[in-house]
Amino acid sequence: MNLKHCLLCALTLSTAACGADEKKDPGVPPPPKPAEELQQLKFFNGTWNCEGKTQDDGSTPGYEFKSTLQVAPYLDNYWIEMKYEEHTSKTNPYGFKSYGRVGWDGTKQKFVRLHTASQGAWETALSPGFVDSKLVWTGDLNNLGNPEPVPFRHTFEKKSDTLLNTSFELQVEGVWKLIQVETCKK
Where would one find the signal peptide in this protein (predicted)? Predict the structure, then answer.
């Protein structure tokens, strides 16, 4: 590297320009590879079109809805991105959107899920992965107008490579209450 090149690097404060003709430091190890466990979830990749129904809870009538789930690898295959949308309709005038990431926690040896949603909700959840044909997430749902997080359970059941059933439950006063079910096709 000549003096003119060093001066140019100093003036532009560009580490990229300074190291452009340098070799990678052999003393710095490369980053780890994406977790092999994420391959279990490859089944989800793609666009799923779903039809679902919420449960009548006594104060709010149940309703049918249509939704879309889009799943793709994210951040160099270290995470999986999930975009979910319940479409607006006469019976579902506000719709619902959720956006999240799924990854692998090597310390806990579990999948981790981080989601944010329309209407201000957010969640964290863990899953051991598929057991038989079911992937069950358990975690806490926050900011639903409750002062405390609400435990939830979200089950995905693989029926075939192109068919998936889901159920979403909340724990209310220690009892699991079914909130909604869906059937999704790819």
Answer: 1-19
